[in-house]
Amino acid sequence: MKRIGTMIAAAAIAVAPAGYCCTNLIAGKKATTDGSVMMTYSADSHNLYGYLHHSPAGKHADGEMRKIVEWDTGKPLGEIPQAKETYNVVGNMNEHQVAIGESTWGGRKELADSTGKSVMDYGSLIYVALERAKSAPEAIDIMTDLVDRYGYASGGESFTIADKNEVWVMEMIGKGAEKGAVWIAVRIPDNAISGHANEPRIRKVDLKDKKNVRYSKDMISFARKRGYFSGKDADFSFADAYGEHDKGTRRGCDGRVWTFFRRYNDDADKYFSWVNSDSDEPMPLYIIPDRKVSPEGMQASMRDLFQGTPYDMTQDVGAGPFHVPYRWRPMEYEVDGKTYCMERAIATQQTGWSYVSQSRDWLPDPVGGLFWFGTDDTNTTVYMPFYCGMTEVPAELKQGDINTLDLNSNFWVNNIVANEAYNRYDQMIPDIRKVQEGLEKGFFKQVPESDTELAAAVEAGDMEVYRNVANRLGADAAKKATDSYRDLAGYLFVKFMDGNRKKTDENGNFIKSEYGVPVYPEFPGYDKRYYENIVKESGDHFLIGPASGK
Length: 550
What we know:
By secondary structure, the protein is an alpha+beta fold.
């Protein structure tokens, strides 16, 4: 995802550009513990306010037009004829359980629209398709038809398009001065997991497999015309023809997919050689997992910080004395004429919002579509469950301003908690996990009962009851998560003020003396490596004598 300006792939740098954001993780229905089709999306940006999008269902008159506004900039791009009927959309999921996400990779800069006449940017493709599609294949038809008719105004994009039966990855890029786009879409097998993160990943596929592979008629001929490809059609690779990757994008982009793969396949560590540029054998688009993926597991995967890998962000010197798994931008720096990188994990500080979607074919559509939504950093957010037929956005998740603090906003209280933890991560994260896990376990426990109540209303044909219950459940979840994190922010401030750590009992309550006076706090100090580095850098500057033995 990109939020400002046109994203163009940068070459010969040591890490993916800072604007290259967003991660999609994917699991087919036979690869999940409950049979749902799942996908994730993190909208990562340093200037994006986290709120829950909603577009109501509607009937539209002939001649009615839909305005298209560029998602990143707010720039009006034009209008297209409105569909006669549009569907309810909550976040990035519609009432028919169709969910769509994306990640930006830019690609060849000369393929960006040079006419200024293209209308459909990648964000508008997503939301227009969600308003109009009842299935993933239909969404692909709609998106590709839109760019053919009205032009494509964005750079290289990978889209994840899921419904209750299947999930596809589609990659698309414009044609410069020519109208439209070239694209390819591949159906992920039901028993597989996949993902993409700002790097095109569709390479050699069976172009004759019409059931599972779709592509624009000029995908290969256009590449030949532009000099991007000269081999046999059967050897064509969309990613290599239209993308431009290097060591940095492998590490900062494909590395995020690899760390997801290794959670569910014991043999996936072999793909590290691709990610680390030790081998030019590409990591596959999808793999068959050894273990099935649960909804809780998908949420945990979105919190990945390369734990247990050579890129573990808590272990290198940049983590500091509090083992902070975050690195501030810029993502590359130079020392003695050489360029070095900061790691880019799935969990990152600049996320505006993220989700885990579940499309469940055994339930009526308004119930089967479950949209787990969270604001700010995926590592510390709380994923709240919302049903795809919900028609009212909770007050805590309405649109706001990234420059105006609002303590009733879920986005802002999550940011306060996260930013407190960025300073003393290893000391604060246990307290955050306790609240986060307690909330999410409560939400998961409630889902079966909510499913039953909502399904009964739908099956009885009483959609008013359905909407009332779905809206109430959504409002309750948002309020509970927001109130809990507002309290948590205050608790962390009090407990860790002035570099100390106040003593608490097993329930987290502050301890007082028998006379009702707060007991003296602890001084947790720094880790051993921090002190060792001081001596290494300064020698005897701070020396006061031999060890005291205390």
